[in-house]
Amino acid sequence: MSIRPITFYDDGTVDVLHDDPGYGCTGRIPVSETTLSADSSVLEIHCPGGCGSVSWHPVNGAADPQPVQQLFVRRLAQRRHVSFREAREIHRRLLEERGLLDRWALADLQDADPAESTKEGL
Ligand SMILES: [Zn+2]
How much distance in Å is there from the Cα of 25 to the middle of ligand 1? Predict the structure, then answer.
């Protein structure tokens, strides 16, 4: 139960859903409004629904690995000024260093490189 990413858009935004019981807020936010911890291991999302809730996602994406890891990579690409492909590799190494490589969910991700459209959102 958390505020989690659902759908990514090429303009650097993402639909999120706050799925805690009694909430169900939704909204579309810029990926740049999410916050990566200094060591890139935790991602913070503020609920866009005005309820004041915040979610902190671990680097492995916990129960929702594919979309959460994709959000990590998109945010990382913005912060490091690298392509999606390069950020994906950085994220993979983060998991590897933590012994979490078996949780990596982006191996098969066939996605257009969104870096060009997200660099403006810094
Ligand atoms: Zn909410």
Answer: 5
